[in-house]
Amino acid sequence: MPGPVFPAEIGNWIEGREVPAVAGQWFSKLNPHDGSEICRAARSQADDVQRAVDAARCAYVAWSRLPGVRRGELLTAVVDAMAARRADLAQVVALETGKSPSAALGEADAAIALGRFMAGEGQRMYGRTTTSGAPNRQTSTVRQPLGVAGLIIAANTPIANVAWKVFPALICGNAAVLKTAEDTPITAWLFAQIAHQAGLPGGLLNVVQGLGREAGAPLVANPQVAVVSFTGSTAVGREIASVAGARLARVSLELGGKNPFVVCDDADLEHAVKWALLSAFSNAGQRCAAGSRLIVFEAVYQRFRDLFVAGAKQLRVGPADGDDFGPVINQRQLERILRVLERAQAEGAVVLTGGQRLMDPAHRNGFYLAPTVIEGAAAEAEVSGTELFGPVASLYRASDFESALALANRSPYGLTACIHTASVHRAMGFVQRVEAGVAVVNAGTYGSEPHMPFGGVKASGNGSREPGTEALDVYSSLKNVVVCTDPARL
Ligand code: NAD
């Protein structure tokens, strides 16, 4: 099947046109399935970021004055164009990430659903009316755009991550500069083209390709960027919070997780195993919401472990439909995971299955890690507290509900959490007391939808929630409007 056509060199997208980086430099994007070069992408620097910010500032003037409903109509046209090109979007996502075509199509559809919901928010940009203590004063709040939104994303679900940021930023009346992930340059490039062809005015969405320190950092530091929204690692998130915070920009941080998946002694074990496998391994564990800490009651530990390890051994690893998961995104990430696993074993953890790179002929050129299950790591060990962002699950024993909950909460992160139990008491106790932004009963550690707020506590974020209607709070500010009337002049 012929795929979408893209050039060998993927430029920036500024003011509705594709342009190379000012310095004329490029970096190589490799195929995670076989290590070959897919394309080169513009290696942008501060100059390129400034050009994109300038274009966004110009486009902002007219866009911010358009009523939200009209903005929503234009964004609906973009969403319709995405739907018409969903197969192309999915093909690029599959190529850049190594995930299967069907998984990529699911991701494209999720991005489209999110875009549709956000476009509809143009009709629901509600404020409040309230009373005043003074007579003849009418007061209400209205939402106002902020200006230029600086958007920085990770590569794990590239088209979903683009949609997650761009649609809420634009519907609120902002113009955007997207510093896309260096591992997925083509997805953002294709999205920008589709949006442009659907009629999005030039300059409203600008895409800057490049590396974090060179192209992301100048966007964060730029005084003309009013809001910085970031999806990525906690380490980079902290840096962004400090730089953008110092200049008093709005900052939204969607960061990492090391999410607990608790299995009680009254759980339906086969159901729990099915969901644990999906939580730990889907998308090769490259989800902020991955269930990477499996906390199992002593009474069922051995049975659960045997079923889970047997299930993990059966997973098919590769880029095709029918495979359960693909490669990790790049060699650096693969090596980092292997180093943490080595240190974990040196500290006493036992690898029950996996633990190595796949070196058979079908996999050896790609960045493939075998599905990996370990046990015996201490709760305070590096491997227990570090997000690996790969197909690795760690098993822990708990004597009862309280010790399972304590272990679940013993983490620097607090993004998602799940419990498997037949008891309404345990289920409700868990969802109330677990330290997480998403709590799930009897399914996976994920499952958010476009209209639901997503985000975490502790080191998983700074308290903002995207998407859902709550995303409007990230990308708009509230103005309190006071109108006084004079009854004598009626
Ligand atoms: P990363 O933090 O290394 O990079 C993310 C993005 O930030 C990339 O575009 C990168 O170029 C850019 N960047 C890097 N350094 C920067 C700097 N100094 N200034 C500005 N930008 C910079 O993360 P990653 O390893 O690519 O992605 C995986 C992480 O993303 C994981 O921690 C994962 O949990 C997280 N994530 C979170 C969510 C969520 O919604 N909470 C969703 C997806 C991924």
Commentary on this structure:
The radius of gyration is 23 Å and the shape is globular. It is an alpha/beta fold and 490 residues long. It has helices at residues 46-65, 68-84, 86-97, 101-120, 158-171, 185-197, 212-221, 234-246, 269-281, 298-314, 331-346, 382-385, 401-409, 424-433, 471-475; strands at residues 9-10, 12-14, 17-19, 26-30, 37-42, 128-130, 137-145, 148-152, 175-179, 205-208, 225-231, 250-254, 259-263, 291-297, 350-353, 372-375, 392-398, 413-414, 416-420, 438-441, 457-458, 476-484. 39% of the residues lie in helices and 22% in strands. The chain folds into 2 domains: 9-255 and 461-479, Aldehyde Dehydrogenase, Chain A, domain 1 (3-Layer(aba) Sandwich), CATH 3.40.605; 260-441, 3-Layer(aba) Sandwich (Aldehyde Dehydrogenase, Chain A, domain 2). α2 crosses α6 (185-197). It is built from 15 helices and 22 strands. The structure holds nicotinamide-adenine-dinucleotide. The site of nicotinamide-adenine-dinucleotide (NAD) has 27 residues, from α7 and α8. Residues 152-156, 179, 181-182, 211-213, 216-217, 220, 231-233, 236, 239-240, 254-257, 288, 387, 389 line the site of nicotinamide-adenine-dinucleotide (NAD).
The number of strands is 22
**Rg calc:** 23 Å
Strand content: 15-25%
Tell me the distance between the termini.
72 Å
Shape: globular
User: Structural class of the helix and strand makeup?
Assistant: alpha/beta
Helical content stands at 25-40%
Q: Strand count, sense and closure of the main sheet?
A: 7 strands, mixed
Task: Look at the structure and give the mean pLDDT.
Answer: 97
Return residue spans where pLDDT drops below 50 for at least 5 consecutive residues.
none
The CATH topology of the largest domain, please?
Aldehyde Dehydrogenase, Chain A, domain 1
* Bound chemical compounds: nicotinamide-adenine-dinucleotide
> CATH superfamily of the largest domain, called what?
Aldehyde Dehydrogenase, Chain A, domain 1
